[in-house]
Specification:
Elements lengths: L3 E2 L5 E2 L5 E3 L5 E3 L28 E2 L6 E4 L2 E4 L6 E11 L3 E2 L3 E16 L8 E7 L5 E7 L7 E19 L6 E7 L1
Antiparallel strand pairs: 1-2, 3-4, 5-6, 6-7, 8-14, 9-13, 10-13, 10-14, 11-12, 11-13
């Protein structure tokens, strides 16, 4: 069985491996869904490919490589989780959103806040992290005041769980949030 490593040479579980398909969707790598590769430039930021061949990530070095029919090239692998909607569109009331479980601690976290067509005159939404899905800490905050905008709130720190939460109800406007981690 092959070992998998992130861009810094740290081991990751296969459950953390995703690739971006032609439509821009993040697709998990699994036994029935192997990592597709396509003929190309190879090397950092490039791709190696022959879709008809079986691919395997070889862990003999510090950086992941793919070997296909005698061709070797570096492979960039996303080790994060695809974003989820934490607070659905039209949220204005105070309360916690859906939790994203990373399966293990991740260090990069992001919340994108999208405001509705009417500006809010008050309200606060925060990005929270947790080790146990019970005790939460604030990682970032945003107070939406303009209509039809999207704003990213990023934070670092080792947390397995993240979510969005409206701490002060919005007045006159609504939001939607998505959260992601890597």
């Amino acid at each position: 069985m092959a070992n998998y490593y992130d861009s810094q040479g740290l081991p990751v579980s296969r459950a953390d491996l995703f690739y971006q398909d032609a439509q821009g969707n993040m697709v998990p790598v699994s036994q029935g869904n192997p990592l597709p590769v396509t003929a190309g430039s190879g090397g950092p930021g490039g791709s190696v490919s022959t879709p008809s061949y079986t691919t395997q990530v070889d862990s003999s070095g510090n950086s992941p490589t793919v070997t296909l029919a005698g061709t070797t090239g570096l492979l960039n692998i996303a080790t994060g989780l695809p974003p989820i909607t934490s607070l659905p569109a039209s949220t204005s009331a105070a309360g916690a959103g859906t939790v994203l479980d990373g399966g293990a601690a991740h260090t990069n976290h992001c919340m994108v806040v999208t405001t509705g067509s009417v500006a809010s005159t008050a309200g606060t939404v925060i990005l929270e992290g947790s080790h146990d899905n019970t005790n939460w800490v604030q990682l970032g905050t945003f107070s939406p005041t303009a209509a039809n905008t999207s704003t990213a709130v990023s934070a670092t720190g080792a947390y397995r769980y993240i979510r969005s939460r409206v701490t002060v109800a919005l007045s006159g406007g609504t939001i939607q949030t998505t959260v992601a981690m890597s």
